[in-house]
Automatic annotation (TrEMBL):
Belongs to the mitochondrial carrier (TC 2.A.29) family. The keyword Transmembrane helix applies. It is found in: Membrane. Its main location: membrane. Solcar repeats lie at residues 10-96, 107-191, 213-313. The chain crosses the membrane at residues 171-193, 213-233. It holds the Pfam family Mito_carr. SUPFAM superfamilies: Mitochondrial carrier. Keywords: Membrane, Repeat, Transmembrane, Transmembrane helix, Transport. InterPro entries: MCP, MCP_dom_sf, MCP_transmembrane. This is Mitochondrial carrier protein. It is a multi-pass membrane protein. It comes from Pieris macdunnoughi.
Length: 320
């Protein structure tokens, strides 16, 4: 189960390994959606917005199939650090919160939400520099190719502060988003498991939860948690991406794809929100939401499912 439970038989360090496995698998499978999401969020408004199919075709014919995995290697590092740190901090904070004192049932979800905020804030602070490089790799791969070359290019464009462009929006987004995700997941998963257990015999209920039931409950809970958290905090996600390229300057010697020209840039969070509403209307704050929801749902299902499966496999390995 995700989070601390009284009968927990895994250490936080073992859960870090499970979090890393979960992050690697999830990132590889969802990277193409991430590229589409970034290009859509940063594209300046036109009379007729490109559909996802049209954007995909543009990327494919201009840059080839590998373009959908631009920034993937850095994305794997980002995913490992982000996912493992979120689960690790969440496990530690829930362990402290629920082990130190008896918690009333009505306060459990509030505590899970606060623990999730701690996990999200720590994760956002840790991975923001990697995110800045990675986002720029996804829009102009040649200019920011590789970790060290990308870091140098970011530094040249805006100095050390450039690595934390969008940090405020990232913390304001990821802290509550992770809090919502974990609290909704922690609320929905037991309900699904309880419903599935109602079909088991009295003898079966005494045995541990069946893996297929746990996987199904985890998938449904992850889907619901991902949808609610992403929609609730999406305007901050949009602002964060536009802030992360504020110091980016396209160089003529590097090829810039048509989907990465005329980008929307912001310098402050307030200015980003105000200008977006003024130019694009309130719906502009949800530019790219469609592909973001696809990515969020698939990411959460894959993240929680592979995490639970990894924990199950690691328990079996440690028993031997």
């Amino acid at each position: 189960m995700v989070g601390f439970t009284k009968d927990e038989d895994m250490t936080p360090h073992q859960k870090i390994i499970a979090g890393c496995i979960s992050g690697i698998v999830t990132r590889f499978l969802t990277q193409p959606l991430d590229v589409l999401k970034i290009r859509t969020q940063l594209e300046r408004r036109k009379r007729r917005q490109r559909t996802l199919i049209e954007t995909s075709r543009k990327i494919f014919f201009e840059e080839g199939m590998t373009a959908f995995w631009h920034g993937h290697y850095l994305g794997q590092v980002h995913s490992i650090l982000s996912t493992s740190s979120q689960f690790y901090v969440y496990e530690l904070t829930t362990r402290y919160a629920f082990q130190s004192s008896s918690v009333e049932p009505e306060y459990k979800n509030i505590l899970q939400f606060l623990c999730g905020i701690c996990a999200g804030t720590c994760s956002a602070t840790l991975v923001t520099p990697l995110e800045v490089i990675r986002v720029r790799q996804m829009i102009v791969q040649q200019q920011y190719k590789g970790l060290f070359n990308g870091a140098k290019a970011v530094y040249r464009s805006g100095g050390l502060f450039a690595f934390y462009e969008g940090w405020t929006a990232g913390v304001l987004m990821l802290g509550p988003q992770v809090g919502i995700t974990f609290s909704v997941f922690g609320f929905v998963q037991p309900i699904i498991l309880e419903y599935l257990d109602s079909y088991r015999t009295k003898e079966e209920i005494k045995a541990p939860t069946r893996p297929e039931h746990l996987l199904l409950a985890t998938s449904i809970a992850g889907l619901v948690a991902g949808f609610i958290s992403k929609v609730a905090m999406y305007p901050f996600d949009l602002a964060k991406r536009r802030l992360q390229i504020s110091s980016h300057k396209a160089e003529d010697k590097f090829f810039t794809p048509s989907t990465s020209r005329n980008l929307v840039k912001c310098t402050t969070l307030i200015q980003c929100i105000v200008d977006t509403v003024k130019i694009e209307g309130y719906f502009g704050l949800y530019r790219g939401l469609q592909v973001t929801i696809y990515k969020a749902l698939s990411t959460n299902i894959l993240t929680f499912s592979t995490y639970e499966l990894s924990c199950h496999l690691l328990r079996e390995l440690w028993k031997r």
